[in-house]
Fold this sequence. Notes:
single chain; two-stranded antiparallel sheet; Rrf2 family transcriptional regulator; DNA-binding transcription factor activity
Amino acid sequence: MKISTRGRYALRLMIDLGENAGSGFVSLKDVSMRQGISVKYLEQIASLLCRAGFLVSLRGACGGYKLAFPPEEYKISMILGVTEESLKPVQCISLDAPVCSRSAECKTLPLWKGLYERVNQYLDSYTLKDLLDGNFTG
Length: 138
């Protein structure tokens, strides 16, 4: 499992919007300057997050993006779930994977399932507010 650049940048975008929530809608140009991420890439990420209902957008001169909910309502797993194809360490535990002929006797399957469960538990245990407040024990 490897978190993509899109996933890492989505977290940075959400953190930036959380940090600048007091100024209303935030332009991607401003986020781009602060975060060192191209506006084009931020537009792609913001579009995904808007479709998921995580961001609100406003067009026009005073437009931009803002969080749809308070930061404590966003689990990190939710944000990464929008941007990542999968957080599963191996394909055989995916719901859409073909049934493996060796799954009944596979000695490693429980290992991969356990790893996936722990990754999800870990990412579920932190919210965007935790990252904003620095409440992150690692």
